[in-house]
Write a structure and sequence with these properties.
The structure holds two protein chains of two kinds. Chain A is mainly β. Helix content of chain A is about 0%, strand content about 50%. Classes of the chains: A mainly beta, B mainly beta.
């Protein structure tokens, strides 16, 4: 199985800040990488697919990059609604695997 | 509008069975592979099982292989997860998720709201 490692596991930031979350895969996955946002008690929301493509309706403040084994998600101009847990996921082969999550909290 | 409505969760004893459903609407169901993803209390997201748009191929995580069966009714636009021999570690919120295309190996673009499964005596 492909192991996905996110860093950091948690992150404190202020409204207006820009933050970056990184994701590393144990094997090369080309650009078969997605990012999700999940808030407590809610379903995950798809943000990014193919490492850098925005899902429909997702604001451009979310930016994904990377290829191979190293990926990142940058969120600009943080707003209160952005504080949530973020996951990366590879879908190059089954079983699909997720990173352990990064909890973004308000400082 | 794409909608995925998860149902069928509940409290079940260890060793018991449960069948989850995901009713899909607002899109051509057969054009999309589907998956089940779960989140256990205090843990992260875990992919459980996936099935191609035709229903011809199914895939499972090792943790559920041999105990869970994914299926779909393409006439009723519904995805199922039959869960047998349930264990305490299967306790989680289960979400169905739509994949972008029918063949699998694609990203999830829409999610159901989730249904809670609790395995406890």
């Amino acid at each position: 199985d492909i192991h996905m490692t996110q860093s950091p596991s948690s992150l404190s930031a202020s409204v207006g800040d820009r933050v970056t979350i990184t994701c590393r895969s144990s094997q090369a996955i080309s650009n078969y990488l997605a990012w999700f946002q999940q808030k407590p008690g809610k379903a995950p929301k798809s943000l990014i697919y193919a490492a850098s493509s925005l899902q429909s309706g997702v604001p451009s403040k979310f930016n994904g990059s990377g290829s191979g084994t190293h990926f990142s998600l940058t969120i600009s101009s943080l707003q209160p609604e952005d504080f949530a847990t973020y996951y990366c996921q590879q879908y190059t082969r089954y079983p699909y695997t997720f990173g352990q999550g990064t909890k973004l909290e308000i400082k | 509008e794409v909608q995925l409505l998860d149902s069928g969760g509940g409290l079940v004893q260890p060793g018991g069975s449960l069948r989850l459903s995901c009713a899909a609407s607002g899109f051509t169901f057969t054009s999309h592979a589907m998956s089940w993803v779960r989140r256990a209390p205090g843990k992260g997201l875990e992919w459980v099982s996936g099935i191609t748009g035709s229903g011809g191929s199914a895939y499972y995580a090792d943790a559920v292989k041999g105990r869970f069966t994914i299926s779909r009714d393409n006439f009723k636009n519904t995805l199922f997860l039959q869960m047998n021999s349930l264990r305490a570690e299967d306790t989680a919120v289960y979400y169905c998720a739509r994949e972008r295309y029918s063949s699998g190996w694609d990203d999830f673009d829409y999610w159901g709201q989730g249904t809670l499964v609790t395995v406890s005596s």
